[in-house]
TrEMBL record:
<feature type="transmembrane region" description="Helical">
    <location>
        <begin position="870"/>
        <end position="890"/>
    </location>
</feature>
<keyword id="KW-0677">Repeat</keyword>
<feature type="compositionally biased region" description="Pro residues">
    <location>
        <begin position="13"/>
        <end position="26"/>
    </location>
</feature>
<dbReference type="InterPro" id="IPR001807">
    <property type="entry name" value="ClC"/>
</dbReference>
<protein>
    <submittedName>
        <fullName>Uncharacterized protein</fullName>
    </submittedName>
</protein>
<feature type="region of interest" description="Disordered">
    <location>
        <begin position="1"/>
        <end position="40"/>
    </location>
</feature>
<feature type="repeat" description="WD">
    <location>
        <begin position="474"/>
        <end position="499"/>
    </location>
</feature>
<feature type="repeat" description="WD">
    <location>
        <begin position="500"/>
        <end position="541"/>
    </location>
</feature>
<keyword id="KW-1133">Transmembrane helix</keyword>
<dbReference type="InterPro" id="IPR019775">
    <property type="entry name" value="WD40_repeat_CS"/>
</dbReference>
<feature type="compositionally biased region" description="Polar residues">
    <location>
        <begin position="28"/>
        <end position="37"/>
    </location>
</feature>
<keyword id="KW-0472">Membrane</keyword>
<dbReference type="InterPro" id="IPR015943">
    <property type="entry name" value="WD40/YVTN_repeat-like_dom_sf"/>
</dbReference>
<feature type="transmembrane region" description="Helical">
    <location>
        <begin position="601"/>
        <end position="622"/>
    </location>
</feature>
<dbReference type="InterPro" id="IPR046342">
    <property type="entry name" value="CBS_dom_sf"/>
</dbReference>
<feature type="transmembrane region" description="Helical">
    <location>
        <begin position="785"/>
        <end position="805"/>
    </location>
</feature>
<keyword id="KW-0868">Chloride</keyword>
Amino acid sequence: MRASDDAKRKRSPPPPPTLPPSPPSPSVDGSTDPNSPQRKRNKWARLLLRELYDLGFNDAAAALEREACVQLRSSVMKKLQNLVASRQWDEALQLVMKTGDEREQLQMKSTLAAREAALLLLQRKFIDFLLLKQLPEALRTFQEEILPLCEPSEAEVKQLAELLLCRDADEMKQRTSMPWQDDELQLKLEELVSPEEIIPEGALRRIVQDVELQTPPPMMMGQVAGDCVEVLTSHKNDVWELAFSPDGEMLASASSDGSVVLWEIKWKEEAVGFSLTMELKTETLHVLQSLEGPADCLAWSPDSRFLLSSGSRSSTIQLWDRTSGLCEKRFQHPGGVVTKMQWLSCGDQFVSGSADKSLVLWNANENSIAYQWSGRRVLDVVVHPHDSKVFVLISGYEIRVYDVAHKSDELFIEADNVMSCLTISPSGKFLLVNFVKQEQLTCIEIATGSVVAKYHGIREQRYVLRPCFIGAHSELVASGSEDGKIYVWQRDNGKLAAELDGHSSVVNVVIRHPVHASVMASASDDKTVLWKQNNGHGVASLRKDSTAMQATYDTWQRAYSVEHFNKLCRGERRMQNNAVGRLCLRSLRLFKQLPNSPVTWLYLMILGSLAAVYGLLFDGWVRALLELRDYIIKSAGEYSFGAFIIWTMWCVGFGMLATCCGYYISPASDGSGIPTMRGLFAGVFQNPGDTLSFRTLVARSIGTVLSSASALSVGRSGPFTHIMAIIGYLMGKISIFQRVNYGQQNYNFIRAAVACGVTASFGSPLGGVLFGIEVTAKYYEIKCLWEGIICSSFCILVFNIITFTKSEVLFERTKFTGFDMDEEIFAFVLLGIITGIGAGLYCKMALVLRRIQARLLERFRLTKPSIQRRIFHVVSICLTTALISFPFGIMRIPDRVMINELFRDQTLSFPQWTQFSDSKHVTLVIYIVLKLFISILPCGAPLSCGVFGPLFTMGAAVGRYYGETLMELWSPHQSPATYAVVGAACFAASATQTVSTAVIFFELTGQLSHMVPVMVACIAAYFVSGIITPSIYDILASWAGMNSVCYDFNEHVLSQKAAKDYMATVPVIFTRDTTYEEAIQALNTFKKEEYFPVCDNAENKLLMGCLRRYDLEVGIARFLAVHRSGKEESKNAQVSTKIQNLISQVLDIDKKKSATVDNVSLLNFQPKETPTTSSMLELGPPFDEYEFTSIPVESYPPQVGEDVNLYRVHKLASISSWTQVYVVKFGKLQGVIHLDSSLTKLRKEDVPIRFS
């Protein structure tokens, strides 16, 4: 920890006292209990001793050291300083690294501190050798000690290397930033050792300064944080009134169910550390239930012996004995329903008011009426604490003062707005008035009748909310609100001091404890009475709520501030003001919990309808842009030079705009959506919020429209699948539909959205569902299949309802001749083989083109991601496509129009077929070759584009040419159009290596009679293509760095390999003692690690859980943001840019709020409210409950034994949606298998049989 400014002025350490041998240090005294009186005494003595040395009072410090029998430094620390002074670096290193005698081991703050201390010592040893001109010894120290033992960073290695080039000591001193003088090195080492060895410089001074900062002035109290001490939940209905007994030992609470509960309060003072805190305990003493209706009036006698109670529907006042809990007397109010009662300070009389225009003075002992005022409707009554005056709220518009002694009354205040209740301060100087419709409180000075301040912010429209004065001098005003919050203001200026979140419904009343000004109680319609305490500094802010729902990972992930986290934990919802709205919300929540919930059906219906509408709009936008392009080209001349320039500029311009969407809006929108979805379901993306964000939706939508409207040969089924997944994810975050934000449950919704996206592209519900499963899922829950089918069915239904959808389907309905099983089946098999070879050639050419593009980018020095690389890549493929497609009119025809032309059971009719030759077959061959080439160009390009549409088109062209050739050589029963349809299905199935494409064919054409030839041909194409190359989606996924989702190995190959042969060493292990500083260093050092195991300790390595990298980064960012005042500036450089961005997000949301923690040991000599990065990680369950700053722990990460084969390893990873699996032996961590690295290693050793 850094020293304060005053301490920095004294750069030399305090001199060691010249005394006889000192007694043992506190760390080795007879007491082992850190909280024992002797240990506490020694701690304070050492603090004073250090401060005396820091201030220069060496003689006084020496006297204190003799008298208190304590040492500033431990014997091991003294030995270390002597070794450093005498240049005995090896012996000093043994003390730091704990490799010597166990009795002489130096206690360091952490393992990172030990590493830093060892590096400092070895650096000085290295410098000493250089100063002595002993270069070989210096190099040996660097290579054999510094590098293996300390693992220095690149910057540290560079700095040490630069010292080798220095000519003298002065130049070394200028170039290095490490401690040069002995006293600087001593100070640096003191910062790294444990406080048990030596008290840090300026420790006592910092404690005193922090205490002064944490003690607020009287006018500012209420702006500090505290703890929720107790939540009382015995009531079965709304709690309407609270009352403390004057002695502070009892609390009475009244409920709308007619019950009055007496709570016994026990205060216990207990020494904790060096401070006194109070522990509040409550016990239910009596439950009083004899009222006719709701209870809402309570009043304690001045001696705290009796309690008066009544209700809003009762004219009876009951007198209860506190000790026995029995009703001693009943008072029948002469007018009617009682509105309020209050005891007078004499103790034997009380007053009561009623709504029938009467105020009654009662003799409690005689059960008789002493006096009665009539004629005015009484709404509220408060009694002055020091005289006989009674303030009465009359009819809501005036306040009158009744003098009980003289039996007189006078007008005090008359208002134009309705007043609801009154509260008088304990001193009797101020009166608090609540204006119900104005949603404001007004404080009035009683002596002068002047307004002190007005307080705004509460919501009060329907209920009477009772405020109170709080604080030792009534310097604060607190009130509940209908929004479930408690608002606290400064009394004299009306400024809002705090907003307390404790209840989930209307807060009816807030009262102050009569003895302890730091405690208050509040009651709400959520059936709870909430106690609050803040350790003696004003009003508390809520930190924990024992009635709250247990926090989950979903709660932690959704929270964006401490207050929001608390709200989510309490399950707060924004309720409608009217009863109908509340009934609807409660009904929806009930339906949501049912099996096959109606809410789930509603979600699927809406999602399917949105997919249909969005798909039609999408096609309409693309069609409008293409018609605009064709109109401009025709205006300039079909094949003129001007048309060529327009065609080229159109293609390049739209391509550049499409790639800019990915660069400036969201990089996750690039490429085909299928590999992205496959990676999402496989667990590649730890934070789906980036891949499925609204920004990605905008970028993907705009980019896909632009790329589809250009001349590029791209599809849009993959991008549209991603678009629908984003829409499904965002819909799933709506509270009505929400399951969880992360994990398999919500992924089922996203899988349904993927199926719906495929359906919206093809118009095939069952085929779309199967295709979505086949290309995106490594593991799929069959029980959730119905969700995808229902969603896709509603998508098709909406398509058919909208009138113009008939012309928007992918295929026109075909009416081919029925197929009879004969020799023509071999023709279809041959077609499958040909298309399989063609699809394999397509994938191989894509790999070759990728290598060529990489070499070109390397030649132009564009190897790193940048906007220049994007533009170069996209412009090159756009120019090439434009040059190829413009001269050939047949290449300008959109894919959808071309497919319908090829599927039409008649002669090819487009005039472009005879542009260069009378033979349509020649043009068809040219089209196939050119289409193959320009369809490969966009593969892997940094823009939103798909591949399925061009594959379909090429397959249709190949099948049509095959059918036309058969018609000339042999007269088959089937028309060439039939072979075009089968060719399209086979080519797409073989390139994507899916068989569900055949199902899509059956649904679109309705030709179930061709099931056998289509299935046989698709199987043949699948087989041939699988031998030659992986699927195009595997290739695209590998280009995106997602090798773990590329399953191009069969079960036999994987089952021959054992886990222990392919596991890697775990680079870093976390324990419960790992600090934030160590975690930050691990993130910076191991940037490719996505998971970090948690073990019991570094030696035993018993696997207890695992941390996701994303969760760890978010947890650290939240910790640093919440405790930013305790974050050391010197540690900022170690925090990555990503964590700094996460910190900024938290601070932007919650700029003016902060939270505190109470678990930092005093031995760290840090203020209790300011933890630093040296604090241990706040791990979530199973180690501790979730907090906003917790780091979630996966308590059972995927793990296997070391002899398990790789097939089972990969199967387990698929089920768990993880990209790695831990290898254990009897529960102890042995290594880890990364799916990426294991598959890469397999490819090098066991290459499947493929044609090259």
